[in-house]
Structure formats: C-alpha cells, structure tokens
Design brief:
Helices cover about 40% and strands about 20% of the residues. The protein has 12 helices and 12 strands. The protein is globular, with a radius of gyration of 20 Å. The chain is an alpha/beta fold. It binds 3-isopropylmalic acid and magnesium ion.
C-alpha cells in the first residue's frame, strides 16, 4: 500500500527516538513492500524558534494531508518561561484539537525481562495488560482560562457528546479484549464527573450490554493501579485524570520509555507518540529509550494503515530485543551495561 506519514520530531529526545521509529517504518516498508512517503515538519519549541508559532501553518497542512502522524516530544527548559506568550505544548494541544483526535489509547503491559525495572513486586505485576483510553480534546486543558494579578482559573467542561464518543471508542476496544470497562471519575466532587458517570452508564447499558462496567473514583484508581493492576482491562477517563494515571501506570511497565500512544478521531488518521515527553535532562546523549516510539509506530500501522500483520511483527521485534536483554539506561539493571538509543533501535531492526 501507499501512505503518507508526517514525522514531527519536536524537541529534547524527540529527534533521537523518532529517528529510530523512522528506521523501523522504512524497514517495514521494504520488508512488506509498502510505499511509505515520510515528510518531516516542525512542532513545539523548535518551531517557535524558527517561525514564532508552536504549530506552523505548514505543519498543520502537512498533517491534514497525511494518513498518519508520528510525533516525538515537545517542550524544554528553554521555552519554560511561564510568562511567554507562546509555549511548545500549544503545538501539541492544537494538533490534537484541530484533527479531532479525542481518543488517546495508552496500552500498558509488562515484560518478564522488565519486572526488575519496576519498583513494584513481581507478584503485583503478573498479568498486567490494560488499555487506558484518555479523553484528549476536552476538560481542563481546553476550558476557558483566566488570569488576573491575584486569581487564576481553568474551566472544566464536557458535553454529553464529547463523553459519548470517547466512551463508545473505549467500549469498542473492551469488546475485543476481556470485556471489562472501568470508567474513572471524581463523581463525589465534580459535576463534570457526575455527567461523565451518567452518560457512560447509559451508553454501555444501551449499546454494550455484553460488557462489565464499573465506576471507580480517580483517587481510588490511583491506589488500585499499584495494588491490583491486573484487575484492569480497559479504563476510560477524562483528559487530566488520564494524563496523571498513565504516568503512574508506566511504573508497571518499568519506565515511561516503554509506553506508546495513539490519538484517534472518527476517521482513520491518527497521531502516534510516546507518552514520555522531551526529557531535556538526557537529550542529545544518545541514551533515550526508543521502544515507546517504535511501539507507537506499531500502533500507527495497525490503527491508521490497517496493517495488523506488520504491527504485530514490530511488537514482536521489540519483545525479542527486550528478551535478548537489549535494555536502555532507564530499564537496565543497576551496574549492568545499557543499550544506546541506536543500539536498541538496531536490535528491533535485527529481530524484524
Ligand atoms: C502527555 C503529556 C502532555 C499532556 C504535555 C507535554 C502537555 O504529558 O501527552 O501525556 O499533558 O497531554
Ligand atoms: Mg502526560
């Protein structure tokens, strides 16, 4: 097949991990006979430096014309001035919102070779296999913001339709998995959460009666993620809760450097990025973990291009590289040599 893929490396370790993702994409193209056309563009801090905008019109247009988008990370200390008029993160929010990518899929699994990388005990980690579906274009992130000299506010707002569409998406995935859906909210304190809970119950009872639905308060969910993480199948939650819970859930996998994500809307086009961010402290040193980005490439192949076989091959190759003990610094056992970004990417290519 032919496909156009926009590549947005961004800031910090973004370019390093994206380069490995691109190598894997090209290898998949060659091995399976697909014509992938990759086109690079600016986003985030590097885009601000060159154009004054975190999402230049050119990048926006390229993404709209593409079948899928692979993104590294945005942000860094250079652009951290809280009083700055433009911030790198605005580029990320704008692309998510402009393309209507409201469902952010963040799968979390464990690997036998990585149990020791987690701070949790192996018996707690056994059997962890969950998919967190984070609402991505609403809530506190996008509500009206106000600031005066001695007051600030961020509006948290959700419409029924915004809740319905992401719950439908999550329920659809639960149906293909272990048929359990956990909706996470703070209904004992927030009105948006009460609407979330009511709407979720309605949709699931009407359209997905075959699923088991549970409602869990976000504070309790944070605790259960550490106590009995294998009890979760699909979690669906609003934007901010999903952001926080997935950083927490990365402890189960062993590191943020292992978690991929897919941001989807109603169509096939999606945006794929590791959840870890730009990690300025290790940027430019060639030690960042590329596995989260490479696993994001697998999600891209599956969800935007419909290439399930190729996606599985990439996931299997990452699995094999980890099983061989090719572990970047964030997950290598203390006192053992760790793999560079390029070496880890190469191990995946070798396995492929
Ligand atoms: C994420 C990140 C972003 C978010 C940041 C970089 C704005 O933490 O994708 O999880 O909060 O959405
Ligand atoms: Mg985050």
């Amino acid at each position: 097949m032919k496909a156009t893929i926009a590549v947005l490396p961004g800031d910090g370790i973004g370019p390093e991990v994206t380069a490995e993702g691109v190598r894997v994409l090209r290898a998949v193209g060659t091995k399976f006979g697909h014509g992938f056309e990759l086109r690079e563009a600016l986003i985030g801090g590097c885009a601000i430096d060159r154009t004054g905008s975190a999402l230049p019109a050119e990048t926006s247009a390229l993404c709209r014309a593409a079948d899928a988008i692979l993104l590294g990370a945005v942000g860094g200390p250079k652009w951290d001035d809280p009083n700055a008029a433009v911030r790198p993160e605005q580029g990320l929010f704008a692309i998510r919102r402009e393309l209507g990518l409201y469902a952010n899929l963040r799968p979390v699994t464990t690997h036998p070779k990585l149990m020791a990388a987690s701070t949790l005990r192996p018996e707690v980690l056994a059997g962890v296999d969950m998919l967190v579906v984070r609402e991505l274009t609403g809530g506190l992130y996008f509500g009206e913001k106000k600031r005066t000299a001695d007051r600030a506010s961020d509006l948290c707002e959700y419409t029924v339709e915004e809740i319905r569409r992401v719950v439908r998406r999550a329920a659809g995935f639960a149906r293909l998995r272990r048929k359990k859906l956990t909706s996470v909210d703070k209904a004992n304190a927030l009105e948006t959460s009460r609407l979330w809970r009511h709407t979720t119950r309605e949709i699931v009872h009407k359209e997905f009666p075959d699923l088991t639905l549970e409602h869990v308060l976000v504070d309790a969910c944070a605790m259960y993620l550490m106590r009995k993480p294998s009890s979760f199948d699909v979690i669906v939650t609003e934007n901010m809760f999903g952001d926080i819970l997935t950083d927490e859930a990365s402890v189960l996998a062993g590191s943020m450097g292992l978690l991929p994500s897919a941001s989807l809307g109603d169509g096939k086009r999606g945006l794929y990025e590791p959840i870890h961010g730009s990690a300025p402290d290790i940027a430019g040193r060639g030690i960042a973990n590329p596995y989260a980005t490479i696993l994001s490439v697998a999600m891209l192949l599956r969800h935007s291009l419909g290439l399930a076989r190729e996606a599985a091959a990439v996931e299997k190759a990452v699995d094999a590289a980890i099983a061989r003990g090719i572990l970047p610094a964030d997950v290598a056992p203390a006192g053992t040599p760790s793999a560079s970004t390029v070496a880890a990417g190469q191990a995946v290519l070798d396995a492929l």
